[in-house]
Amino acid sequence: MKARVIAYYLPQFHPILENDAVWGKGFTEWTNVAKAKPLFRGHYQPRIPADLGFYDLRLPEVREQQAELAREAGVEGFCYWHYWLGGGKMLLQRPFQEVLASGKPDFPFCLCWANHSWTTKTWNLDEKTQKRTVIAEQQYLGDNDYISHFKYLLPAFKDKRYITVEGKPLFGIYEPFSFPEAHHFMDLWRNLALQNGLKGIYFYAITRSSNFNRFMPDGTIARVIPNLRSSAEDYTAMLAQGYDGLNSYGQVRAEMAYYNKYINMGLIVARKYMPFLPATRFNYPQLMKHFFAPEDNWKNVFPTVLPQWDRSPRTGKNEGIYYNSTPKHFEQHLREALHLIEAKDMDHRILFLRSWNEWAEGNYVEPDLKYGHGFLDAIRKVIE
To answer: What is the rounded distance in angstroms from the CA atom of residue 137 to the CA atom of residue 156?
Structure first.
């Protein structure tokens, strides 16, 4: 293996009561995927799954097939999105709970805490015509809740399949700017880990490589104009919050560099007031030239690789759409990522794949009717 590829995994493909109450009985991610329409000539929509079909993650057979496809492609493991909203309230926990309890599939995994509130914004194509509703609110309820959270996850951390870095279970924080007590939380969990026979917890934060926010030395958050030349200040400030590592994400950086960052910011503002504007389009191979920051080669920075992007099934014209995102161009993107991290020791030579199965974001590598196993083949070709 030339790199440790860890794929983010969305456990949303099964009905839950919270979605039923807002969107109608039986709603899953497939609902918007299946009814998506092309927004311009040549726009690849709808996207239809091939080998696995419109699957239900309550079925262990599906989870086994996913693991087999990932294993054959050279993916080390899945990083399941984990929704703990406070007070024991969770969402979409069933697939991972069953994976943990059953021991199957026998395939490595880790967790990333998706610490954000659920609102109707996520699956609302026309936000202006509907009031945004909070489906479930993310809360930070203090030490007792943090301890309960740790105890719930302890069996996962001790599972032989759990992915480690420096011998410690790897655990991500999705929205570090939304979690003001992260430093205290991480210290508490590290102590609990040592008390329970673990070497600690390897915490990483997901962070944009060019950010509008930055932690200041006093812990406050300042608004800044993104720096497209260097991410050193952003990364250093985030690591100072107590994280062991970072998962850098270059989407904003790439999109701003593609058009010019001020033009890009202007387009974002203009669309809020002029919803009739066409969707912004980005040519994938040209865009990816700007995706990585120079500091993505730091030992404890783990870059993201992005195969495709098209959130129009969720958001209509409100976000940028990538075209020419083919397996061939993804292969080149992977090679650039590999070159970036090749000097790191193997334990830290991690690439986060975003994502395994985010179908409503057009952000997946599972087989579809257009490209078949093309994206999986690209990973195997480059990584193995």
So the answer is: 25
